[in-house]
Structure formats: structure tokens, C-alpha cells
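Q: Here's a chain of 135 amino acids. Please give me its 3D structure as C-alpha cells.
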Amino acid sequence: MMKSILLLALCLGLCTTYGQCDALSEACAKSISKQFIVDPNFFQTELNPQDLASIRAVWLKGNTYRLSICGSDTKPYIIMVYDEQGQLLFDNTQFDRAQVWDFFPENTMHVQVIIRPNEQSVDRSCVSVLTAFKK
């Protein structure tokens, strides 16, 4: 009986957490300008203060992309974007920790986006990373 109660509590906790992350992703998508089409293959996860998340994408030549990071932590996330050679393309710590960034690739490129919680973060948080391209 006790095992059943613990299992139920764990399931409810996970469902609530993922539900919160889903709601965050939906709100983040709505915040992107109507000039952009949001990629439905967005990335969401939970991060502990010491964690980092990494996603890869292909950005096509001639498109304007918008990268948007939304999180349940009120402190802005640290975002770095690298090209396939490992060259840093964007570091939001140089731009007041901007949570939205537009990029116009001159060539088709593979990118890696690294997201970290702010150094002052102390709690686990949901984070959603959306990419969109200009219509």
C-alpha cells in the first residue's frame, strides 16, 4: 500500500512538472512576433542550478531565425551559440543576458545552443528553447 502511494505521488509530481513546462513553452511561443513562424520541434527540459542543456539545429542560408529562451526561473539564462567548428557566434552575457536573439546566416550551418541557469539560481527550473524563422 505504501509503495502504491509513493508511486502515485511520484507520477503526480512528474505530470505536474511536465505540465508546467508545457504551459511555459506555449506561452513562450505566443510571445514570438507574428512576423515569425515557430518551429513546432521546440526543446524543453528541467535544469538544476549546475546543469546545462545543449541542442543542435540546422539554420539555412537566407532565413532570419529567432531564438527565444523562456524559463520558470526569474533570473535570465545564459545562452551561447556555436557553429560546427566550435566558434562562438553569440554569448548573451555580452548583451545584458538577452533571452531573444535574431540571426541571419550567410551560409547554411549547423549550430549548437548551450543553455545554463544563471549563477544565482538555486532551484530546479523548466526551460523552453524555441526557434522561429521570419515569414
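Q: Can you summarize the key feature?
A: The first strand starts at residue 36 and ends at 38.
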